[in-house]
## 1
Amino acid sequence: MDSVSGVGPQMLADVKPPFIPEGATGMTILVEWPPGHPGTPPHRHSGPCFGYVIEGAVRWELEGEPEHVIKAGETFWEPGGDVIHYQNGNARSDASAKYIVFMMCAPGQPMLTLVEEEELAERAHRRAPRPSA
């Protein structure tokens, strides 16, 4: 690795997920949101996810963490399992957003499960305070 000149592999993220489901399979997807797109409704994944924003900026919010923006060239990860992923939409109204995600999926479970309104209300106390408008 030649980290001085920027040629070759460069470490972008180094995280240890809390768990990897037994017998998990890996899936890599490309997500593209047009300007202002809200992203996927609140959901969760059966295993950890790791990603890299290629273009634009993504509004990101996991249960218990404050909302923030991840810009092109930055990475993200989420633990999967029981944690609710509230936001993953385009943070910009004037440009598209594009990112790649590698997910570890538990066998026999969907890669993504939407969270019902009733559960969101029951777990509202776990959500970080919302930014003021």
Note: Strands lie at 25-33, 43-44, 49-55, 57-62, 68-71, 75-78, 85-87, 97-105, 113-114.
## 2
Amino acid sequence: MDAIAGVTPSDAGLDGTSWNVVGHVYTPKLHSDNVMIWHAQIPAETFVPPHVHPTQDEWIYVLEGELEVDFGFEDGNVTANKAGPGDMVRMPRGVAHGVYNRSGAAATCVFGVAPSRKLYDLFCALDGVTDPAELVRLAALHEVDFLPPPGEG
């Protein structure tokens, strides 16, 4: 899929699309074979459990609020890295990470992945899904692997 010239308005997503993924509102702003970028509204005390993108690099640019991104799941030495407005979080492919809003206030950010691979289709499939087992199953079909809960690995 090629990128299309134009402007995605600040109050809209591509083709009017937005998704509710684990309580976060994701609004796609750019999607091509090479990259996918989406705006995210992340309510206080919500999170994306630890997971790995084996085929994509991912990043977060924080606009408002504060997020914590945990790394180190592979060796059990998990560290929380705080990111605030203007900070860029880098999550290379193959590196497990979890994204948390533990701040007590909403956060707004821009996420991106490269290449886009199957992530757009994953978000379409996950829109409104609340069952954790179904989320994990769908994610695995779209090249995102969630880590088992602590004690189950």
Note: The first strand starts at residue 19 and ends at 21.
## 3
Amino acid sequence: MMQTNEKELVQNLLSTPKKIAIIPHRNPDGDALGSTLGLYHVLKQLNHEVKVISPNDFPDFIAWLPGSETVEIFEKDKENTTDFLNTSELIFTLDFNALHRTGDLMAETLGKISAPFIMIDHHQMPDDYAQVTISDVNFGSTCELLYNFLTDLKLNHLINKDVATCLYTGIVTDSGSFKFQKTTGNTHRVVADLIDKGVNNPMVHESLFNTSSYSRLQLLGRALENLKVLPNHKTAFTTLSQKELYEFNFQKGDTEGIVNYGLSIKNIDFAAIFIENKDEGIIKISFRSEGSFDVNEFARKHFNGGGHINAAGGKSLLSLNDTVNKFIDILALENKQ
């Protein structure tokens, strides 16, 4: 819930038409794109001039979301997107809580902007760049938090089929199709209302999960071939090299969800995937856990990352092989059992 002064400030900011930018984190997922586009459709109905500006492109499995064709990509058109940002009167940042999550160049651009920021996010330890910070780690998704935000502002009458579809998509993806721990009774009450507003929920699930290409399935096969189990640490991990990504015609989003296969193994409560990205000169890492093992803390402490207790990401500047060896050494040193 917003404090009364925050609510009044937001209502005042939105009371007259403004030029507004809405920003997701870099490499946007279903919750990031769903929340930003959901808010976009609401603000358009209030006669604001609105643009969703994504740091980089988003994967095909969410590219069908209503309004996705209007999203402008910062790294593809720095001049025009920077001009819009610099002349915006209000900036929303959704599904992240630190400007560096947009990438170095976009973070530098955002850091120079004097317009007020509104943050809506559900990750731990938010930075203090926003005039209004709506941050609650008890929510399983930013989309569910955004639904509450709109309800607090008495704007939920503007949740039409397009808005509802965007919000539903973010809730589905960030809740692991309603199976993660932060899926509450309220989550299902929100989802019920969204379905009542016109969401074609079978279509959403089909679009998200049943659109694999042949090469993507082959890539999954290679990742499963590479899977290693460390039973003493209740841990499973896999790797994908840049060469393997090329071999199977990697497209953005093709590795989504692969990390979860390690968690499906009996007696495993920690899983990781290490993906080589030679363009960026990093190893991109995703961590997942079940139960009380805190992968957010693990990612922050060892791999310059963060996220949630049971889902987090990080990166390494070492080689793929050295990164994996570092990971195994850390498990041994911390005596994870």
Note: Residues 30-45 form the longest helix (16 residues).
